[in-house]
Amino acid sequence: MVRRFVAVWPSAQARAKAARVRLVLTDSDGVLTDGGVYYSARGEELRRFSVRDGMGVERLRAAGIETVIVTREAAPAVEHRGSKLGIEVLTRVADKLEAVTGLIARHELTWAEVAYIGDDVNDLAVMRRAGFSACPADAEPQVLNAADIVCRRMGGHGAFREFAEIILASRLTDADSFRATQGERHVVAARAASPLDPARPPGSV
Questions:
Q1: Model-level pTM greater than 0.85?
Q2: What is the spatial distance between Cα 51 and Cα 34, in angstroms, rounded to a whole number?
């Protein structure tokens, strides 16, 4: 069954989960990028990243929340992006749950203090353990069903930034202030209908 995305602000339960977050983990391909891989004439792999997502990383850091990229790929472009943003990048990760469990122990955190955003089935194990989870609007159906929040934006087009802003805004205790800050732009999922918001063209941000 497919799902309809209705523009509403997160429930009190979702905001409570987001407010506990101290570490944000993100997949790369399909979240920070649109999932496509481009090849140069010399066979080099190229990826497109959103500068708005980069600002999301900076805003989280200013609030005392660090970001880590977790990917099974060994792409130099991802490592370069992480270096530019000043964040840790875990590459060649075959078992994300095992890798993230070790990462959490190293940071002396609990699962409840960890947020994760992913788009594909290899992200599910971590998403189900994380205290707060999300996915882009164009994630795989199994992931759409597992996420606490389904972002309005698509991978590579600001989904991470939207997730970051939800986490930051969750620290506001007044519901009206939270809604005003978000402008009711993010979405939650309801079972039935189309996997994309019909009022918003695919790929728009």
A1: no
A2: 13
